[in-house]
Amino acid sequence: MSVESDVIEIVKKKARVQKPDIGLDDKLEDLGFESLDAVEMIFDLEEKFDIQIPFNANDQKAELSRVGDIVRAIEPLVKKKT
């Protein structure tokens, strides 16, 4: 699986609003994410990819507001690890 598909799968599991197709342009807010959900999702992503994601829970909207933002934040961390 790719980073993108793995991220989307984890986002789907954590989303409070069920949507058949989640894409890179979907906003976490529109998927029903609250701050605790976002933090739990970050932990799941860190565990999945064995990385540390720089994340400020107090300023999450500015950093990771869309699914694509998460993918773009994770891809270089995964590449750096290999």
How would you characterize the overall build of this protein?
This protein is mainly alpha-helical. It has a single domain, classed as Non-ribosomal Peptide Synthetase Peptidyl Carrier Protein, Chain A. The chain is 56% helix and 0% strand. It contains four helices and no strands. It is globular and about 35 Å long. The two termini are 16 Å apart. The mean pLDDT is 89.
Labels describing this entry:
82 residues, mainly alpha, globular
CATH architecture: Orthogonal Bundle
Return the CATH class.
Answer: Mainly Alpha
Evaluate the radius of gyration. 12 Å
Strand content: under 5%
Oligomeric category: single chain
Order of helices and strands: HHHH
Structural class: mainly alpha
Low-pLDDT sequence parts: none
Q: Please tally the helical runs, counting DSSP H or I stretches of 4 or more residues.
A: 4
CATH fold-level name: Non-ribosomal Peptide Synthetase Peptidyl Carrier Protein, Chain A
Shape: globular
The major beta sheet can be summarized as: none
Number of strands: 0
Helix percent band: 55-70%
Mean pLDDT: 89
What is the CATH homologous superfamily assignment?
A: ACP-like
Total tally of structural domains: 1
* Ends apart, CA distance between termini: 16 Å
